[in-house]
Amino acid sequence: MTEAGAHTKSSQAKGGFYASRLAQPGAVLAPMAGYSDAPLRQLAAEQGALWTVSEMISARGLVLGGDTENLTLGRPFEGESNRVVQLFGAEPEILARAVQKAEAWFSPAAIDLNMGCPVPKIRGKGGACLLQTPDVAFELITAMKAATTLDVSAKIRLGWDTDRSVEVAQGLAAAGVNLITVHGRTSQQRYTGEADWDAIARVAAAVDVPVVGSGDIKSAQTARERLRLGVASVMIGRGAVGNPWLFRALASGLDTYPSAQERARTALRHAELQTRFYDDQTGRLTLRPLRKVLPQYLPDHPELRDDLVQVVTVEDVRRVLAPLLPGVTTTHEHARYAGTRP
Ligand SMILES: Cc1cc2nc3c(=O)[nH]c(=O)nc-3n(C[C@H](O)[C@H](O)[C@H](O)COP(=O)(O)O)c2cc1C
């Protein structure tokens, strides 16, 4: 066994974060820029996600920029655990310092390296372009591992334009990575076509570190089929937006899709968490990003969509969802009742 291989085995034997979480059933919330913020992570964690991953954070920004520990991309919600912080970058020294800063500021359970972001502005700075220069990625992992005792993982796509995932994964494993997540598309494919789970299974068979598969899981049934392909777990992104109960199904085997009332209650809670986390009492700024999320809790209530995509305040959300939430009063109704003696 190589030295790096021995290192990986010994940190697994010690029960590193990933090994201990993978000892139970469940699925993982994917990192999604613009979505996997503290409120979404909290809802997924409550439903039994094995771990959640932050939106990607620029290593350069953390180390050289004006970012502070209040950076909302990395900041945990109160009491948050099992949250992995994802970094992107391409310089070993910067990544090593970013790992230390992230560890000090954000108390992550583990650190993940982004090797899959296809967005052009990220090219040359890390993300999926590391798939064209895997040797750089291996150096990054070595530097990150040397900077922390936490588990370090990498999230890759199959390749830049062709599948070279087995070769890349083997190099990452040799560099000491504790876990690899594979999104079964090339960077060139972006989000088109279908994720190639045969390719993900080939990676899982080729390395001796746990491999988590990612791509197109929208139901517990699909997740269970994918789990039979030899992966250690599955990661769910878009399918979990508006449906955190997928995590409950995979953690507990309880497959019931909640009633519209429970889903409406959770949508309202999402809006409340959003306002609380971003500490904006008016919700004027912070509810805007939820406009694309809230209708996904209620796909069977298309009549609410037009109003849900225009909400500004939590009060608006409460008003729009009122038909599904008997017993929840709006501030306006409170005001009316307040003047009436029983
Ligand atoms: C809006 C959006 C943002 C994403 N941001 C990230 C990111 O910051 N880091 C990352 O590694 N992957 C990111 N991804 C990829 C997802 O983590 C996941 O691998 C991909 O969406 C496939 O899984 P899904 O079909 O379950 O969504 C993003 C995907 C979407 C749709």
Question: What do these coordinates show?
Answer:
- The radius of gyration is 21 Å and the shape is globular.
- The protein has helices at 3-13, 17-21, 38-46, 59-64, 92-106, 134-147, 165-174, 197-206, 220-227, 245-252, 260-277, 305-308, 314-321, 331-338, and strands at 28-29, 52-53, 57-58, 83-88, 110-115, 151-157, 179-183, 211-214, 233-236.
- Helices cover 39% and strands 11% of the residues.
- It has 342 residues and is α/β, with parallel strands linked by helices.
- The site of flavin mononucleotide (FMN) has 22 residues, from loops.
- Belongs to the dus family.
- Residues 29-316 form the DUS-like FMN-binding domain.
Largest sheet: 9 strands, parallel
Supply the CATH class of the largest domain.
Alpha Beta
Average pLDDT figure: 90
User: Which sequence of SSEs, written as H and E, runs from N to C?
Assistant: HHEHEEHEHEHEHEHEHEHHHHH
Q: Tell me the distance between the termini.
A: 78 Å
Shape: globular
What is the CA-atom radius of gyration, in angstroms? 21 Å
**CATH architecture annotation name of the largest domain:** Alpha-Beta Barrel
Q: Helical content, roughly?
A: 25-40%
**Any idea what the CATH superfamily of the largest domain is called?**
Aldolase class I
Low-confidence stretches: 1-14, 333-342
CATH topology of the largest domain: TIM Barrel
Unique ligands: flavin mononucleotide
Overall number of domains: 2
